[in-house]
Amino acid sequence: MEIIIASSPAETATIAADFVCRVLARQERPVLGLATGGTPFLTYRELISRYERGEVSFHTARAFLLDDYVDLDTDHPERFREVISRDFTSHVDFPEGVVYSLDGSRSRPEEVAAAYEEAIVAAGGIDLQLLGLGRNGHIGFNEPSSSFASRTRLILLAETTRRDNARFFDYDLESVPRLAMTQGIGTILDARHLVLIANGRAKAAPVAATIEGPLTAMVPASALQLHPRVTVLLDKAAASGLQHTDYYQQAHAATA
Ligand code: F6R
Fold this sequence. Notes:
alpha/beta
């Protein structure tokens, strides 16, 4: 893993945006994997600023969301499809209809999941997948006990996840959905480059378990150890539980 310890969340966002811009510049038809939640917000803001300055364009790109809630009203503001549009995609020049999301309102989750997997393959696979990290070590909504070979599917959200996300629902736990659709860990591992961003002390323990802990289904993000191209972008607080920070910093300086 390439582990980069930045001075601030803003710097993690700048570096993540650099990776996205590189993919957009290099690929003829770039495919981005987008996360929601609080973490990538600054990255999206940075990308919007670069787009407004004419430094980057998304007109040849397509994007796939990692996950979405099930059973929220179609136009609910916390549906991830709405969130990503509000926070990012509607502010830049993605063509109409190329930002794919998991439809959590349908009654047949297996069909939705299979169609999503097929759409990713038909797009040529995901070039760069942005990831946040749950306090319980989840990536996407792959909660602890998820198989490393899991594919896109319906999942029951863990209590910690629902509590963490209650802030998006006026702190009313009862309004946080219990079910979600998520890309599986196997699906995520198929992307060509994974960029995990984590900021803040609350992420220190799952970051340490992800990078330095054993491979275990109880820390779904530990599966990233199996991927040949992973970049982990951390602010100092999120890196504070790591044992080998000197080595990571030297390794990054030596190979950057
Ligand atoms: C969101 C997602 C989740 C979040 C994670 C961290 O699409 O897949 O894995 O990345 O729950 O959430 P924040 O960034 O709000 O701390």
